[in-house]
From TrEMBL:
TM stretches of this protein: 6-27, 39-58, 78-98, 119-141, 161-183, 215-237
G-protein coupled receptors family 1 profile domain residues: 16-270
Lineage top rank: taxon: Eukaryota
InterPro entries the record matches: GPCR_Rhodpsn_7TM (IPR017452)
Main localisation: membrane
Keyword terms, alphabetized: Membrane, Transmembrane, Transmembrane helix
Region (Disordered) location: 295-326
Organism of origin: Mytilus coruscus
Record's compositionally biased regions (Polar residues): 295-306
Keyword Transmembrane belongs to the record: yes
Composition skew (Low complexity), residue ranges: 307-326
Protein's name in the database: PTGIR
GO cellular component terms given for this protein: membrane
Compartments, record wording: Membrane
Length: 326
């Protein structure tokens, strides 16, 4: 059945996320590199989404959707936690854009540094979950609300505005920040090429930093493209439903399944784009089991040859003794 396939896929993706998170955590630069640390947080957020989606899929396919019961409460909570995990992923992507923007300045801006700090990320995580769970509590107290396990529950206008509205704002902020980062990078590259007062070493250091910045920006570009392809169809269709009351079940189901595209592709982006993770992945998957020959005999042969070289040649000693006798 389809839901068993989706469950198996999500569990497999969860394993891939855990593997990518472990590889990223083993990188030495993660303590100093904020970009790697934010990528780690993004992987954790996507992994949580996989578990929540699996739980929701199992409940909706093993219970009667039209009958009230404890499973309806599970659907209600998970129906809000999944969008919260998606919004946390969007928050992390936006923070990564802000971090790249701050790297384009010669002197890092204090405001941008504060917005991308661990405290700000933690507060954003808490705020998103409080914002989502508050509506969940209000739904639990509302006896006239639709049954949460029904497929049409997440097509209500108030639910769409509550979830898809913030998602649209996040996507807009990410796009604007990304455009500013690209513009500033072009300006900085133009200034580096025209600089004459700097020494060759300073110019070389700036060019290396620019190349490293460009490499991270390509990784961020892949993440943003996947995020847009994953979030925008659901967001645009949700806003369309709010204008026109025409709901197509097939389109709604397709846009909901597209939300899995982001956690599906993100770990592979990190494995392919981040050199340190790629090296760990190759070493683990293609590790050679060849046994290297012992080096001790070679060492003994070397020492023997060195000692033989230190000994005086026999021919010379024999010649000297013959000369003395004569």
């Amino acid at each position: 059945m389809k839901w068993i396939f989706i469950t198996t896929l999500c569990i497999t993706l969860f394993g891939v996320h855990v593997m990518a998170a472990v590889m990223l955590a083993k990188i030495r630069q993660i303590a100093k590199n904020r970009f790697f640390r934010m990528a780690f947080y993004l992987i954790i957020s996507d992994a949580c989404l996989m578990i929540e989606y699996v739980w929701l899929t199992i409940i909706m396919n093993t219970n009667d959707l039209g009958i009230d019961g404890p499973h309806q409460d599970h659907c209600l909570v998970l129906g809000h936690l999944c969008p919260a995990a998606i919004q946390c992923s969007l928050l992390m992507t936006f923070c990564m854009c802000l971090h790249r923007l701050n790297a384009t300045f010669t002197a890092p801006k204090r405001v941008l540094k504060m917005l991308t700090s661990n405290i700000a990320i933690g507060l954003g995580f808490v705020f998103i979950h409080v914002y989502v769970l508050l509506r969940c509590v209000l739904e639990l107290l509302d006896e006239l609300a639709l049954l949460p396990c029904e497929p049409l529950y997440n097509t209500q206008k108030n639910f769409l505005l509550f979830i898809d509205g913030p998602n649209a704002i996040f996507v807009l902020l990410i796009a604007c920040c990304y455009i500013v980062v690209i513009w500033r990078m072009r300006m900085n590259r133009h200034l580096v090429n025209e600089t004459e007062s700097l020494s060759k070493l300073q110019i070389q250091q700036r060019r290396k930093a620019s190349l490293r910045m460009r490499y991270n920006l390509i990784t961020l570009s892949c993440i943003i493209v996947v995020t847009a392809c994953s979030i925008l169809p659901r967001t645009l269709y949700g806003l369309y439903i709010n204008v026109n009351d025409n709901i197509n079940g097939e389109i709604n189901r397709a846009t909901n399944n597209l939300l899995l595209l982001n956690p599906l592709v993100d770990p592979f982006i990190y494995i392919l784009r981040i050199k340190e993770i790629r090296c760990q992945f190759v070493c683990k998957c293609f590790h050679s089991n060849k046994i290297t020959p012992p080096t001790q005999p070679a060492t003994d042969a070397t020492s023997a040859s060195m000692s033989s070289n230190l000994k005086p040649p026999k021919t010379s000693s024999t010649t000297s003794r013959t000369n003395q006798l004569s």
